[in-house]
Design a protein that fits this description.
- This protein has helices spanning 16-36, 66-74, 76-88; strands at residues 2-10, 42-47, 57-63, 89-98.
- The protein is an alpha+beta fold.
- It has a single domain (2-98), classed as Alpha-Beta Plaits.
- A 4-stranded antiparallel beta sheet has the order 2-3-1-4.
- Helix 1 runs antiparallel to helix 3 (76-88).
- The protein is globular.
- The N and C termini lie close together (5 Å).
């Protein structure tokens, strides 16, 4: 099994409300993928509530194998969420490990 862990740091937005709305939009978009992509075995998305930490949002997703993770990377619904993320992300960290 492959575990895909991604952390996102948002760019500064015009207000706290705009930031919260965008984080919720991204979380909802990522959460919806588990019902659209049948080879996602498990998925958890969280918005960081701790303002003292660097990262704003986390994604943990499990796949049976590397081929499924590769397919996920180019899956159309995932690409649509990636587009939204790309508009507001400042930095991203990713670890893909075999578990």
């Amino acid at each position: 099994m492959i575990r895909h862990i991604v952390l996102f740091k948002m760019k500064p937005l015009e207000s706290t409300e705009a930031r919260a709305a965008k984080l919720t939009e991204i979380k909802n978009g990522l959460d919806a993928l588990k019902n659209k992509v049948d080879y996602i075995r498990n998925e958890q998305v969280g918005i960081n509530w701790n303002p003292d930490e660097k990262w704003d949002l986390s994604l943990v997703a499990d796949f049976d194998n590397k081929e499924d993770l590769d397919a996920y990377a180019i899956q159309p619904d995932h690409m649509a969420v990636k587009k939204v993320i790309g508009e507001v992300v400042e930095s991203r960290a990713c670890v893909d490990s075999e578990i």
